[in-house]
Structure formats: structure tokens, C-alpha cells
Amino acid sequence: MTEATAIASFRRVSPAILASARMAMANDIPDTSKSEISLLLKKAAPILGIDGTTYHVLDILLGLSRGDDWKGAGRPIVAISNAKLAEYTLRSERTVTRCLRRIVEAGIAAYRDSPTGRRFVYRDNDGMVASGFGLDFTPARVRLAEIKESVDNYQRELKATQDARRAVTRFSRAIIDACEAFPEKADSWRCAAQAIMETMVSRAEQASKLESLHSEVLEYAEARFGEHNMSCAGDIGVSSTINTTPKNLSESNERTRSYERDIKQTDDGSAVEMAYENKPEAAVGDTQSRLRQAEKAVGDIQGAVLAAVPVGLLQVGCRAAQECVSVEFDGWSDVVGAAEMMRRMIGLSEAAWVDGVGRVGRYAASAILATVLEKSLRDPELIAKPGGYFRAMVDRAVDGSLHLSKSLYGLAESGMNTRDR
Predict the structure, then answer these.
(1) More reliable by pLDDT, 303 or 263
(2) Could you give the dihedral angle defined by the CA atoms of residues 69, 70, 71 and 72, in that order, rounded to the nearest 10 degrees?
(3) Which of 10, 136, 176, 188 has a CA that sits 20 to 30 A from residue 3's CA?
(4) pLDDT digit string, tens, across residues 59-77
(5) Nearest CA to 277 among 418, 132, 172, 174?
(6) Directed axis angle between helix 203-231 and helix 144-181, to 10°?
(7) How far apart are the C-alpha atoms of 60 and 58, rounded to whole Å?
């Protein structure tokens, strides 16, 4: 089969399309498997700017490719008409055309157009492609190592961002507690922390600066404790005749803590920034009361959603999602930690994610997100808009009509039946 790639004259050619065409003409192509490249391209979708309908079209094309074409001298060419793709995705042919262009310009496929514009593949007796016209995924084979490296770097950056976000929350809360313990330094520490949150753009920079401020706070606290110990030196011990037995044991054991600890942090870190807002003293009580009521309502919804959803059920029911994000759901922290990656995989906006967390809680929202991703990976035709499906499930959770455990049990059962075959 010839390795020349023809681009029809009716196409508007861009530099990215030409680059893909040149890669499709390469001869030194690394071997891979259909399952490996499919999973890799799905992980790389956020990096390549592929989401929504384009992601759906890509999934269909990869599914139609033959496994043997991804090895040796094979060319993974997929011949399917725009009309058939439009029928599968419930979109217009014009939309499908734009999606195919995005896939080609992303550098993972190339146009291989016939003189008549038709797409077809002829194979020899050995099953190899003798002549074919359609979408050629040879560029994905050529860029295999590059895409792997990009995915690894992206996941490392995403993990670093999540770690920095947790560090910001941890140091912020510690500084707030220190402000209560040392009122004489509260104003200066709060102003310094507020300045860090406002001036530092990235979470990593905020975490680094807050860590430095926290170190200063610890030094001051150690100095104060040292002074206290020195002031007590040489004191005469006197037995007290005051009855120190508490009247109410439960009252004596009650532990106080700052109100800021009770605020649940959202993904965008807004709770940390709220902790430094200077509110009028007269309105503090009302504001705290309203926030506690809202938090209680969210907690009730989250408890109802997860009442029959142990993390083990998520682990068994969402195998494809775990494989896609390279995270095992051994605990709820793993599910929540993978939420950012899962959000990007289904093309859910950050605003919609923050809204969902605010309405049903972070753990319930993460469990719903994992379920949506699992369903979209198993059957992309079933869920045309995963982002809208997520928002609909959140609405049902708020209404009390969401039965997440039934969905997960169904996914777990169908997954076991598939493996048995």
C-alpha cells in the first residue's frame, strides 16, 4: 500500500493538518495495541483540547479501528461517512465535520481522501490494508512516546496543584488558630495571609508563602512558651483548697475550635479566602448561623446519597474510570483526589463542578462524577453530554430522587458479566 497521503482540494488546509499528513507518511512507526492507544488518547484528551462531541467521535473511530492495524506495517485507517457518524452521535453532519477537523489538527489522525470523496478500505488475503481512504491514525502511533510523556507531565502537574491546594488549606487553618491563641499578633498575621492570597496567582506560590508565614508563627509561639516557662521558675508550690471537680463532665470535655475550621473547603479554595474576610462584628453571628444551616443541609444531602455507597462499591463498579485516571479507589481521599482529572475527562466546567460540590458535598459530587465517567467510557452513545448528565444527577440528589447505589450495583454486575465472557 502506498504511504502517500492525499488531502482533498475542498478542504481548508492549515499548518496543523499538513503536519498530521507528514506524520502519516512516516515509515518508522512504533508498535502499540488498540486498547493501549485508546486509553492513552482518552487520558490525553484534556491536553489535546478534545471534549464533548469531539471526544465521542474519537471514541467511535477508535472503536472501529482494527487491532492488527496498530502493529507492524499496518495503517489504522477508519472508513466511516460523516452521515453515519452524525447518526451515531445525534449531531449534524456539519458538527461532525468540525469534530473530525479538531481531531486531525490535534495531531493524532490525518485525512486520507479519495478522488471521489468516498471512504473505504480494501484488504488483502492476510487482512492487511491494501488500499484505504478515510481517517488515518498513523500520527497517533508516530507520537506515541510524546503523548505518553505529555500525559505523565499533565498528571504530575495536576497532582502538584492538588497538593498545593491542600497545603494552602492546612497552613491557613493553622494560622487562623494561632491568631486566636495570640490576639496581639492576630491583625498582622491575618493581613499577611490575606496579602499572600491576593497577590500570589498560583496555588504553589500561595502554599510556599503561607508555609513561610506559618514558620514565623511557630517561632513566635515557641518564644512565648519559653518566656512562660521561665516566668514560672522558682515559684512555690501551694496546694489549692478550691474544688476543681467540674460540675458537668461533658461541659469540661467540650473542645472549642475556630469557626473557620467548620467551613468546608471547596475545590476553588474559596473557603480559605473567606476565612480572612473582615466581617462587621454585628453580622458575624447571623452569617455563621446561615452558613451552619446551609452546611447542615448539604451534609444531609450528602449523607442520603452515600448512605448505601461504600467506597468498595465505587471501586468495583468504576473499573474503567479508575483505569482512565490511573487511580485506585482504595479510599474516599482517592476518589476526591481524582475528581479534577475526571471533571476534565467528561468536559465538565469548573463552575459546574464547584456548584455541584456546593449543593451535594464534595464526596457525593465525586462519587457522582466517577459514575458518570464510568458510564460514558462504557457506552459513549448512551450519554451524549456527560456534563449535563452530571448536573442532572446533582439535581436529583438535591430532590432526594437519586439512587446512586443502584447505578453502581448495575455497573458492577455488568462489569463482572463482561469479564466472565
Answers:
(1) 303
(2) 70
(3) 10
(4) 999 989 988 889 888 889 9
(5) 172
(6) 30
(7) 5
Give the relative orientation of helices 281-306 and 386-399 as an angle to the nearest 10 degrees.
100
- Sequence-distant (≥ 6) Cβ neighbours of residue 91 within 8 angstroms: 53, 99
Which amino acid, residue 148?
A: K
Residue corresponding to grid cell 462587621: 280
Average of pLDDT values for 339-356? 87
Report the run of H or E that residue 178 belongs to, with start and end. Answer: helix 144-181
If we measure between CA atoms, which residue out of 332, 417, 416, 325 comes closest to residue 376? 325
H/E stretch holding 132: strand 129-136
Read off the pLDDT band of 394 (50, 70, 90): very high
Contact 260, 275 (CB under 8 A): yes
Asked if pLDDT for residue 269 goes beyond 70, the answer is no
Q: Measure the CA–CA gap between 387 and 383, rounded to whole angstroms.
A: 9
Q: Assign residue 4 a region (left: φ > 0; alpha: ψ between -120 and 50; beta: otherwise).
A: beta
Question: In which residue are the cell numbers 471501586 written?
Answer: 315
- The Cα 39–Cα 173 span in angstroms is 39
Q: What's the whole-model pTM score?
A: 0.56
For the chain, give the number of residues: 421
Q: How many CB atoms lie within 10 A of CB 209?
A: 19
- 319: cell is 473499573
What is the mean pLDDT of the segment spanning 78-101?
A: 92
